[in-house]
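Changelog note: in this version the structure field was regenerated for every chain. One regenerated record is shown below for reference.
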Amino acid sequence: MRLLVFCHNHPDLQPGGTEVVARGLFRALRDTHGVEGLFLGAVTAHHRERRPGTLFQSIGAQPDEMLVWLSHFDRFHLSQVDSWGLQELVAFVTDYQPDVIHFHHLLYFGIETLDMVRRVVPKAKIVVTLHDFFAICPQEGQLLTTDGRLCNGPSADGCKRCFPGRGSTDLVLREIAVRGAMAGVDLILSPSDFLRDRFIAAGWDAGRIEVLRNGIAGGLAAPPRVTPDGRRDRFGFFGHINRFKGALIALGASARLSRQGVAHDLALHGGTAWQADEFLAEFKAALEAAPDARHHGLYGAAELPARIAAVDWVVMPSIWWENAPLVVQEAFRHGRPVICGHVGGMAESVRDGVDGLHFPVGDAVGLAAAMRRAAEDPGLWGQLSAGIAPPRLMETAAAEHMALYQRLLGEVPALPRGRRAEGRARVGLG
């Protein structure tokens, strides 16, 4: 099987959840299932300079991972307007002749790429995983209004309020173009029930969207933090420092606890790359107003266990719905309960009072109350930590993806070694 994976960046350049999941899944399929393939991460001038003569660049020492330089992307229409530049990508796909093409995002590649690859490799099966709401929400795929309110789904009037400078025709044409491009896809995947339900509510065909959950890499778990007094009052934020991920909400909660005299520590782990000056100024002011909070900067995957070992709780204060947050799975792998908003993919991933705590999304006061309860209830951490189920590993996700690809290709997957004789007897071959 020849597999071609498209992703909107590479985790070595931008370690977001989608990039980490897509590359991890690709490597697991390669190493465990013997899949031959290539991982193509799209980049723009923000990430790499254009190299003369080609769209393609190497990344690290992996010969099967490459970058594709694609600028001129229209984020509203999900359109790659440089059709001439795409010709080199199309020629590459034509020469490679993959059996399966898996898109983990359409950012930078554009919806046109779906049509192009369908034309040049008509026998290939095309799979798209929806990692956010970009396909139904032009507001950066967040389903979040411009004034910060949660949106339940696209509507003519609602979308017009977010884009007052655009005519209704633009909104309609965007929807028609996205749905038209997706019509040529063999299967659409969602990592969560919540995201699938939002697309169905927006009018997408439920029969074409399957839920296939993400997995994470295995490894040794960080031990619980040693606490001589039994107090569990150290909180960690892990992720991009931006408005959507709620860093300002976390800092507001910490500042409130400090004013109340509640002993605690909040460690923020994550980079601030590509953030607007206005947000960075707000973040700096909020950090200065929270004396018990510290920003520890960007971290790599290898550093996560050591950083998470220093905290008791993982705080996830995202102000949008989220989908299938990778940080939740990582927290659970290390036995850390999660404090998160009470909606969307967060609420689906974290069970309130079982393996974490919920608070009203976007509410710094509500988060402060949950953090205070976590710090001052001596038995709560042990109760919630014991309620954590082992997270789903990448090997499991890879095996399920492999079975899915084989199903689409009409292949019969081999039975596990211990069941082959039983299978042969059952079908009259033994």
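Spot check on this record: Residues 415-430 have pLDDT under 50 and may be disordered. The longest strand covers residues 36-43.
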